[in-house]
């Protein structure tokens, strides 16, 4: 369901830390665009700039220079509250460590983003259950994380990320804590959400087998995008 609409654009993004001789470049002149409905994998060695880019896309950080446009909005001109609103209303996050609340049910975990949006209780439960059903977990909605497998916990985390119907889903090493079989299940789920629901997905991964599920791979090296690493992928 990819469209021609550009939803994310980096224009000569630079991100530095430190001053003087201690100054380091996490990103050094990075430019790329992502269209609505794409499934993008971001790869690179530790320190290559991929995590910094994801933090910036997720409105958790701002560039030192350059422009970041999200759905046409110039993000670096937003204040902290405006960035929080953008994150809450347009982005979903999935992490390697699941980040579920251990003493609450799967349903209650999925409800959390809706609480921040002040959605009424009855509507929250309906939306949360629909999200769990979308990831194949409607039957275990009242189970706590301890009663679920690692793959099921990650599905709950994905349900929590999509319950607000975000424009973009950011997945940071979503299969990093899973075995190969569960990893494939999660990647098939992400692919299905991308193709059938039209959610734009941006995923950081160090696993080339997982990256192959994406429509396109962006490789980072030493703060730059390195097109020489494409290795024949799309």
From TrEMBL:
GO CC terms: membrane protein complex
Domain of life assignment: Bacteria
Keyword Transport: yes
InterPro entries: AAA+_ATPase, ABC_transporter-like_ATP-bd, ABC_transporter-like_CS, MacB-like_ATP-bd, P-loop_NTPase
Annotated keywords: ATP-binding, Nucleotide-binding, Transport
Pfam families: ABC_tran (PF00005)
GO molecular function: ATP binding; ATP hydrolysis activity; transmembrane transporter activity
Domain ABC transporter, first and last residues per copy: 8-234
Cited SMART domains: AAA
Keyword ATP-binding found: yes
Family, similarity comment: Belongs to the ABC transporter superfamily. Macrolide exporter (TC 3.A.1.122) family.
Entry protein name: ABC transporter, ATP-binding protein, FtsE/LolD family
Species: Arcobacter ellisii
